[in-house]
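Please, structure for the following, as tokens.
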Amino acid sequence: MAVERRDTAYLVWKLIRSQAGPYAWTALGWILWNAWPLVPGLLAKLFFDALTGRAPLGLGVSAVVALLVLSGLGRALAMHGATRAGVPLRFRLRALMQGNIVRHILRRPAAQAFEGSVGQAISTLRDDAEAGALATDWPYDAFAGLAFGAGGLAILLAVNGRLTLLVFLPLTFLLLLANVARSRLMSVRDLSRRTTADVTGAIAEIFSSVQAIQVAGAEARILAHLKRLGEARRRATVTDTVTGLAFDGIFQYTMNLGAGMVLLIGAGQMHSGRFTVGDFALFALYLMQVADRMGFLGYLISSYQQSAIAFRRLLNLMRGAPARALVDRPPCPPPVVRTPAPGESLRTLEVRGLGIIRAGTGVVTDVSFTIERGTVTAITGRIGSGKSTLLRGILGLVPTDAGGTFWNGRVIENPGEFLVPPRSAYVPQRAHLFAGTLRQNVVLDRELSEVDLSEVARAAVFGDDLARMPDGWDTPIGNQGVRLSGGQAQRVAIARALARQADLTVLDDVSSALDGDTEDLIWREMLRMRGTFLVVTDSARLLQAARQIIWLEQGRVVALGSFNNLTARGLPSR
């Protein structure tokens, strides 16, 4: 069996191949940009030698200046081309990884989407995806640095080999020591990123729990907790900044030291005529550039190691997906089907021997029943009997351990991808709304006329509430619907499900936030629609109207039948 590759080089190579054309142009531009200073160095030597009358080939000052101008224009053109190709490339590579991660998360069961907080996931998607995209710069940056360093050293050795060795051997030793110590910089930088993720995650959780914080009177404690996280982030950021400046100072010091050595050693040789002014200009220019490239190569090695950490975090968000799923270009998606294909419309949905086991405890065990089109199936029972877990297992929102679900007699291989609109629409116990307007939350990806919206509002018993809102459907509802009451939010979620016009509508105890009169009105409207419903409910109206009632106790079906049948047999006590 082939071993899956997860190493950084493989992931970087796959990213490069996904954008081969733009990457080639970007690499060519930046290689020319980074290697181009070799030319001005030689031209600087010619310029100063021309001033002293020792220029080869009889070149004059004006000719050398013209070559310098042309060299500058050429480098500017190389930078322009690299930027035009590189900036969109960086965005595409980052978007590729982010899109693949989000796509994978959305395909996983909701209970296993990802570990950690939402804020930490967002921080990883933002920062580590950027680091992964930056890792693709490594090949051409390393090539350009090596090309310039090797070319510069070769030219300096040809001009004066003894002086080159005297200057660069101690510089190389100092730079190697600095790069060995650079692991300290990487560790403090990683700490800075993690503390930033902690603050981001805390802020996201606070914003999503404002009401709970207010009800508990925990504002002071929450602010104190956020202050502690902010202080930890401040310390990590200061340490990161100071450490980075210290390393920059080391590199600058070594380059200045090299320039001083050139002055001390080259002065005597210039006096004797063995070292021209042009040679000194060449050394002074190349010394800084070559030392900088040597330091940059050390930085590339460290950043390459850091990118391995970034890729690992990104793969952790995908929880078990193969590494190639992070960097492969997804196929072009097929057109979205808004109506079921011929023969796919629901006739029966059959659940056979469904079992869900979590943490070694049986939550749902051997549940079987059949739903026929145009009927209502109600699931009821005590709190904690497994009603919501059963619904989520049928829909593929939690993994199942036994049995299966069948659509018109055919097994559903992946319920999480199959039981979605237009086949199924789902309303959980807690309404999940988005920051935006009522219209945006109800319509989502559909196009609904005002007549359709009015029908949806009537079915969800939301018409009177809508009439009291000055902006109607364009009323903003705030983050997670904070401007709505609990009952209004639940009815908006019901309206969104009804707007999907799905074959099967699944509702999980949606009347818990509604008063009795509103609940009765909603179920009356639901029954008038003559759709196919699978609901968790304790509503007497709905239990009496249901074709069949599934009574759960400790995850097992203890009674199955119509309301009249179960009443005749004696309903299980609550």
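The chain has two domains: 8-183+243-326, 348-569. The chain is about 60% helix and 10% strand.
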